[in-house]
């Protein structure tokens, strides 16, 4: 069954939805990484919650006009309008008042959502509203989806992905360095508007699959996961798109295999699993690597400090320094330096003196900038330069 | 305003007020610390908390669920902090990762477990059931002095009142360290204040208020009350004491007006059914915020923002 | 060679006991590069010491790590020979202005009263004498007319003076200031330096992170030169030398000095 789902053997609608979700996930991951790199990830939370009143009002409007209140394109258009209104409120509160953006986001998301709930209860009391099923927009639902709806999602996913691909260059530049982009003559506000517009489009297309509470996950989690693997903006965007695409594809396929596997939560949990994997295991920024590196670094600092103290006959106060030096056979259990310890201490002190001489010498300006107390000078200067430096040291050493 | 009001509306209004104020008070400090969205995160993870509590105990009763929700809130805060520190991820994104994933887990668990026999669903966690908290034993205002009738009050009322008392007393006692560490954390640390513990305590108090409130009024009011009344109050004054007082006033107005509009508004407009009180309370708080943002005497920023160092 | 100052533990212990703030082997690192490496410092009682060094040399970081505001990788800090935590009541700290949100809803007087937190405790009533102390401190920095102002309405120099008044309200024996003269007007600089000098006359110790080389000799009597690791420490006449500054600032020395004289 799972294999059937993953290889798109579960019928035409399910295939359309799965492909649509994959495209949507890719678009969401990429767009989300621009938001994340601009430190505005949670704006998407305001956007998604602000769709609810629009969905409800669109339903009411369509019923009032005598149509079918459940027509997906109409509902999505309504949700886009109210999400845009929410976005405007966020920027008005942030720019025109003393509130910070996070407070504006929280205010907009809760108020719009609350108002949406009010409208939902109004609809439930309408004669045509009992079976509206608008609650499915909260958590998404692909069960019993119509062919037209699946089509809307597949086309919508493809369109937003195409837009992201089209706009990736300017958005990368703005996310990476706003000032530089502005200096290079780009219309930064308009590009940021496009970014928000894309986030909005993704939210709207994703409403039916993932639901408005969880769609924000598709915009945030892939980007955060991707960030662990690379420091380059372009790569973050591509990786985030991949993570989002995989999550969308696998999540939708998995959920099609059993009734008790709701699509939205499964997609979110698949992307979270990819995030958790990245957090722990990513080679450079991952937690495991970082912890190991930090411990190595800490040991390096302590040993170096201990050696310098040893060479200068100063007391060592730190327990960790003593333990590390003992373990490396640099000092004996009673704290006296071993032969190896003495040799290394002398070397460390000589290195420190060389550094000192180097830093006093304007000729070595460039090399002096890389001083951090740890890097041995041997790594930076050629043997000839070292000899020259030692020449300069000698007369001062001997009184 | 007679018998019917006491039976049907008194308890929900008082519960609404207590919940709103209990959330608004810590909300002031969260707002000033740029942690306003912690309330959002906490209220989303209430769902997995209560679902797990239900799966463990097999019953839908208040205390295990509140414990479950509280535990989930703590787990969420711990995870956010861990991702922020270990992964060097900005707090907003870390929050977004954690609360969506936990909420998704909650929904999945709910779908997987057999909860058809009990009243436990996503909608309930989102918008509560304030309207159903009626005081059946009351016969009129005189019931307020009738011990027997008072015993019949919905249990949410004493629980929420107790929570409000706890939040208020704790805020009052810790006012100075809270203010000092919120304004100038580095200085507070050099005074020997346990800055980290104070920050954690604030989040825990917020979580307690949120967890106690969600059962009665649902998550959506919780988020709205954490942010909207303090944000509106922020635009009315330049003093912290006055700001907290304004936020309490706004929270009370939102609760009362929201409940009344939800319950009686549709009738005035000629509709038969009431609308969601929780949603209406959030809406009213938003209207108050909008008015404050347009006309509040202190709506503009004064002084430079802290530079991220 | 100043690097080799062999101190036996015995004399070091005496030095520690006498010093209001002594740092041993302090290393602080952001990411994987030490901002401060293995610094020893022994600040002298009753003196005014300037901590100087180029931008990014770890001046403020050293101070913050010594006070426990940032967590050091290694190192030991004592105040009058005791662990710093037991001596906090005698230490006042003036952070950089930019470290707080000046839009915070509070008045100037409230900020100064924060300095008396130790006397007031959790619930102690603010009495007339506390307010009087706060007003006196504001008077000393020339800000007594501003007690009821909202802090967001102050200029940069006035903000700095309010921070100094708050430290004065602490009535401490050791005053640590992080860039007190950064971006302030001339009147404020004069007001601050005269307050600091009066503190010294009362026998208190002042340590300030300072970036203006041209005023070091006028304002201070001791100097601590740092660039990641310690370059020199001593009386201005001995330690504030061209050679030491050259070592700390490198090629930036010319610009640093031109910047201050020109």
From TrEMBL, chain A:
Keywords: Cell membrane, Membrane, Transmembrane, Transmembrane helix, Transport. Pfam families: ABC-3. It comes from the Bacteria. The chain crosses the membrane at residues 12-37, 46-65, 71-93, 105-126, 146-168, 180-203, 209-229, 236-254, 266-292. GO terms for cellular component: ATP-binding cassette (ABC) transporter complex. Its main location: membrane. It is found in: Cell membrane. It is a multi-pass membrane protein. GO terms for biological process: response to zinc ion; transmembrane transport. Belongs to the ABC-3 integral membrane protein family. This is Zinc ABC transporter permease. It comes from Roseovarius atlanticus.
